[in-house]
Amino acid sequence: MFNQFDSKVNELLKEFTDTFPVEGHAPTWQKKAGKSPTGGLNRKGIMSYRHSHPGSHLSMAVTTKPSKLKKGSKAAKRRKSFCARMSGMKRRLTSAKTARDPNSRINKSLRKWNC
């Protein structure tokens, strides 16, 4: 019984140390391991961000199609707010080349959120 418990604890510790790096190293949310290939952060990246920024409430992306979301729901409001903010950033803070590139991180995120 204790061997099973010890292995579970070791597994959790390994996951924790992989997610939250040693002092002086970049956190996972800033590395490829914490980023989703389809845009935004994956679960490991979000956990790393929460660890680096105590008190933050960063959540997973709202990937539900807008037609399937109930109007005025919390998820619909989050999606609308994110799309408004990120579209503005795309317009002002990226080069024309990045704005047109379908593989840029900002365009991947906007697609993922159905903006």
Q: Would you give an account of this structure?
A:
By secondary structure, the chain is an all-alpha fold. It contains five helices and no strands. It has helices at 2-19, 43-52, 74-93, 96-100, 105-112. The longest helix is centred in the last third of the chain and has 20 residues, at 74-93.
Descriptive labels:
mainly alpha
Rounded to the nearest angstrom, the radius of gyration is: 18 Å
Percentage of β-strand residues: under 5%
Poorly predicted sequence stretches spanning 5 or more consecutive residues: none
Q: Estimate nothing, just give the exact number of structural domains.
A: 2
Q: Which word captures the global form?
A: globular
Binned, the helix content reads 40-55%
Task: Specify the biggest β-sheet.
Answer: none
Beta-strand segment tally: 0
Q: List the secondary-structure elements in sequence, H or E.
A: HHHHH
Output the structural class: mainly alpha
Q: How many helices does DSSP assign?
A: 5
Instruction: Report how far apart the termini are.
Output: 50 Å
Mean pLDDT: 85
